[in-house]
Design brief:
- The chain is an all-alpha fold and 313 residues long.
- It is 77% helix and 0% strand.
- Helix 11 packs across helix 12 and helix 12 runs antiparallel to helix 13.
- The protein is globular and about 65 Å long.
- The mean pLDDT is 87.
Length: 313
């Protein structure tokens, strides 16, 4: 019975898509444009870089040096600092990808991986400054407001999640940082990896292309999904319902933009700029959407963490 109910939404979506093929093509083209213009150039170089840095053992080097900082602040090993740095420069889904890899290599415990996921699934500064502040809003200077709000909240979540679950194996004092020990660990990791530099670069590019195509697929699918809900007037009906419930405080178009942001943040932010006239409200609504992340981002994260024992909930 449960499997039947699970299939119903997809059957309804298939019927809708076959009923409005031209709308599907238009929405998919919009999703491709979004991915090609903003996501691919912003993420692909960092995907390749992270693969190369992991291959040459830089994660182990950084882990030794930053263990005394990460352990008391976030109750995480020093290697987690690499994921924090990469996710805060590259954005979703880099944090989930790298956390999954470190868990598979047993460099993170299950609890540590879940702590790390809680505050490393965020948009990139390039997206916040370039796509939102500069392109969509036409106000590049507002990028600093978006970045400070989103990243400040992320770090606060990280500090709160240091109290998440209690693992006796974590109760130890970190060793003092040592450049010599860090270099030794990096060399040891390179020997264990064993790939020549040419193979390493080729693997990094290949894996990164696979990942960026996967991300693009999620963006295109959710762009079509949101558009189909608009075609069926679902978001319009929801908007009028919210307008009634809030006694006119939220208009139907504003409710639609919030619902779009619930599913996919990029689409939600774009429609929030169009629906809210007050600048403060625009920023407040967008930061809320970015903090939530969107079902699209959840699906991306789940597609990677499902390969491990990390609990998505």
């Amino acid at each position: 019975m449960a499997s039947t109910f699970r299939a119903i939404p997809f059957i309804l979506l298939a019927v809708t898509m076959f009923s409005f093929p031209q709308e599907v093509v238009t929405a998919a083209a919009d999703g491709v444009s979004l991915w090609w213009n903003f996501v691919l150039p912003a993420l692909l170089p960092f995907f390749i870089l992270s693969e190369l840095l992991m291959g040459v053992g830089f994660v182990h080097f950084l882990g030794v040096l930053l263990e005394p900082l990460m352990r008391p602040l976030f109750r995480l090993p020093g290697q987690a600092s690499f994921i924090v740095a990469m996710s805060y420069t590259s954005g979703i889904p880099v944090g989930a990808i790298l956390t999954t890899k470190l868990r598979q290599q047993d460099l993170l415990t299950r609890t540590e991986g879940e702590r790390l996921l809680a505050f490393t699934c965020n948009p990139s500064p390039g997206f916040l400054f370039g796509a939102l502040a500069a392109s969509m809003m036409g106000r590049p200077e507002l990028g600093i407001v978006l970045v400070a709000s989103v990243y400040g909240a992320d770090l606060l979540v990280g500090l709160i999640f240091r109290f998440y679950r209690n693992d006796p194996s974590e109760h130890h004092s970190p060793a003092p940082p040592s450049i010599k020990r860090a270099l030794t660990e990096m060399q040891k990791a390179q020997l264990q990896d064993g790939r020549p530099i040419g193979v390493l670069i080729g693997d990094a590019v290949r894996q990164s292309m696979n990942t960026i195509l996967l991300v693009g697929g999620f963006i295109i699918f959710f762009t079509v999904l949101v558009h189909m809900l608009n075609v069926l007037h679902f978001t319009e009906i929801l908007g009028f319902a919210l307008q009634t419930l809030t006694n006119g405080f939220i208009s139907p178009s504003q409710a639609s933009s919030i619902f779009n942001g619930f599913l996919e943040t990029t689409l939600g932010c774009r429609s929030a700029i169009e629906s809210f006239s007050d600048l403060n409200l625009q920023i407040g609504v967008m930061v809320t959407m970015l903090g939530w992340g969107g079902i699209s981002a959840f699906a991306q994260v789940a597609s990677f963490t499902s390969r491990t024992d990390l609990r998505f909930s």
